[in-house]
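batch job 7 of whatever, protein = DUF4010 domain-containing protein
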Amino acid sequence: MFLVNAAYMPFVVALGVGLLVGAERERRKSEGATRAAAGIRTFTVAALLGAIAMRVGGVILAATLTLALTALATAAYLRPHDDPGLTTETSMIATLLLGALAVLDAPLAAALGVLLTIVLAARSPLHRFVTTRLGQDAIIDLLTLAASALIILPMLPSHPVDPYGAINLQTVWRFAVLVMAISAIGHIAQLVFGARIGLPFAGLLGGFVSSVATIAAMGRRAALTPADCPQLAAAAVLSSVATPVQLALVVSVVYEPLLRRLAPALGALAWGLFVAWRAARKPMQEELVVGRAVDLKAALLLAATLMVLMLMGTLLARWLGKTGLLIAAGLGGLVDTHSAAASIAALAAQSLLAQSDAALPIIVALTANSIMKCCVAVAFGKRAFALTLIPGQALILACVWGAWLLAS
């Protein structure tokens, strides 16, 4: 997963809050001289304004600007004018503070200046997207996702809660949040770019986070819209292609010599590109987006499955002793290949495990992950969806197991 620089995080959060609140308010604005003063751009700029104020001058400056913005809002409400918007006023204050911030942190001020300009220049696309493409259900779904990630997740314990030390509720709920987030990304990407471009993009991006969750989300949508199954299946295949790519990256960082034994898994790239090319040639209803952005029930179902697997993995590893490494790798791979591979590669890098012995547990994890993907595809998608995904998984397993057997 990609991490945001700690210095930039407050501004990323401010941007997200401004866009979320602004999108909701934008949908309730009227048109012409009687329209509301603040919309998506004004709220976004105001949020960035508050973050910059706190960075530059602390609480005193933030409070002063709050009073100033309140006065501007009151004046805009009272004055008879054809354009009651506050974007210019708030942008002027933000620009002033960006100049002050440049003294303290020039790169950050430059980046925020570009970001502010993009927000201001994107007036028409933002207004059009929020008012004509983003429905009320999507707003509710995004709020559900935000509450799940920002309210529920921090409240859950980060330590095991069962007697066996297997079930970590924060880990389980984080996976549920990932499922919902990937579904929302796919929904919004299709709204913005159209299904032909948006779905493959969402699939590939989601695969670097959780390919299993991405396949579940795409399979659910394929069940709702069978006509779009080829494109949704292509997105799922591209998400599974991301698994060996990210696996190679993880192993190369932790212990590069092990990468040679796992490189054949990259042969799945050929299948992913072929499926995506074939799907791109088929007609599709570009404007039709069916279903909700977030499916809470599907996310909870996968989270419950994860809890069962975590408990089974711990118990089997305790009972079977020396074979616990293979069992733990296999059960861990059912949910996430990368963490299992990283831990095994780390053991090899520390000479706690021979390189020849490290390849097999990683291949077992990859095999379990491929089996899990096929099961999820069958459970959530239709027959055509699963049959498109399964050959790619078979190709991955044939490549890695064939290479391992030849090297043995």
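notes: The mean pLDDT is 73.
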